[in-house]
Design goal:
Number of helices: 14
Order of helices and strands: HEHEHHEHEHEHHHHEHHEEHHEEEE
Strand content: 5-15%
Shape: globular
Distance between the termini: 68 Å
CATH topology of the largest domain: Rossmann fold
Strand order of the largest sheet: 2-1-3-4-5
Radius of gyration: 21 Å
CATH class of the largest domain: Alpha Beta
Length: about 325
């Protein structure tokens, strides 16, 4: 690697923690963290500028930096809009760096769902460039023992086939129904080997037979054995993952979505709250009550807006659309 390569090279990875880990193993190139939890919130098929606005609206309401209650509703609205504008500006700067980078770009991503969705979004945007490289790990970046030499050994040029797979996947994920994701099949092994398992895990984020997805069902199962703090629930659900992908605030948002099924002090930080299984949660877990019939449905799965009238279900290997129960 010559000095020009070091100076002109951009490394794109999933977030700030990964950037710090890369610095820790001796990577000195310019690093760009993608910083978007694409498996949560709305992800409609839009051009980059319009999508930034949608994602900023969602991301600004999440996490520890979201506006907290203040003296009045007006103050809260002002802070919320300031936070949304701040997030949108950060996403715009990120997008501009990627689009305008004059030298080679290396995409360094892990094997989990969080990373793989980011990877296909980025490859979709980089179509037409011949100076893009990819490092595909089956471990987490923070666990990588090697330094620059090991990194160089893993880097491979991105092929047009990989780009086409990514573009097809991005179109499917952002489409208004999950059907295109299912239709992608399993032809990813040679191009993007971690994408197939990640998309299967993404499908498991759709409601299951009782109206709860895989992680929500795991929360109910843990609490069926007795109360547990939010921190314990987070660690236990992570332990059950083949490739853990969910961050803590994403999990706290999931817990908030289980309102009515769980019992706990929702005004306190969810990590410290001791949660227990409510009567409705137990009935849902046992398959006696459907969660959507009981409390409704209003969430996004990629480009699909899930509602009682658009209630897509994933039951292991089968996608169905549940018809709204007559009242």
């Amino acid at each position: 690697m010559d000095s020009r390569d070091v100076g002109d090279h951009l490394v794109v990875t999933n977030g700030s923690s990964a950037v710090e880990a890369l610095r820790g193993v001796g990577i000195t190139h310019k690093a760009l963290s993608w910083d978007d939890v694409l498996h949560d919130g709305p992800l409609p098929s839009l051009d980059p500028a319009a999508l930034r606005k949608v994602r900023a609206g969602y991301l600004s309401r999440m996490g520890p930096e979201a506006a907290s209650p203040g003296p009045g509703a007006g103050d809260l609205a002002v802070r919320a809009e300031a936070r949304r504008a701040e997030v949108e500006a950060a996403l715009a700067a990120r997008d501009a760096t990627l689009a305008n980078w004059p030298g080679p770009i290396t995409l360094w991503f892990e094997h989990d769902l969080y990373d793989q969705l980011q990877l296909v979004q980025i490859l979709d945007r980089l179509d037409g460039r011949s100076d893009v490289f990819l490092i595909q790990q089956d471990t987490f970046i923070a666990e990588s023992p090697g330094g620059v030499a090991a990194w160089e050994g893993l880097r491979r040029p991105v092929t047009q086939h990989q780009v086409e797979v990514a573009k097809s996947t991005w179109r499917a994920v952002t489409s208004p129904t999950p059907e295109q994701v299912v239709a992608l099949g399993v032809g990813f092994a040679n191009a993007l080997p971690h994408l197939g398992p990640s998309l299967f895990r993404f499908l498991q984020m759709l409601p299951g037979p009782s109206g709860v997805n895989r992680t929500e069902a795991a929360v109910l199962e843990v609490l069926a054995s007795g109360p547990a703090t939010g921190g314990v629930l987070f660690r236990e659900t992570q332990r059950r993952e083949e490739a853990p992908f969910r961050g803590d605030w994403s999990f706290w948002d999931l817990l908030a979505g289980l309102e009515g099924l769980l019992v706990g002090d929702s005004s306190a930080h969810p990590a410290r709250v001791t949660w227990s299984l409510g009567d409705l949660g137990r009935s849902v877990l046992e398959g006696e009550v459907d969660r959507v019939d009981a409390v409704g449905l209003d969430r996004w799965w990629g480009g699909t807006h899930l509602t009682p009238g658009s209630d897509w279900r994933w039951d292991e290997n089968r996608l169905t659309r549940r018809r709204e129960t007559p009242t």
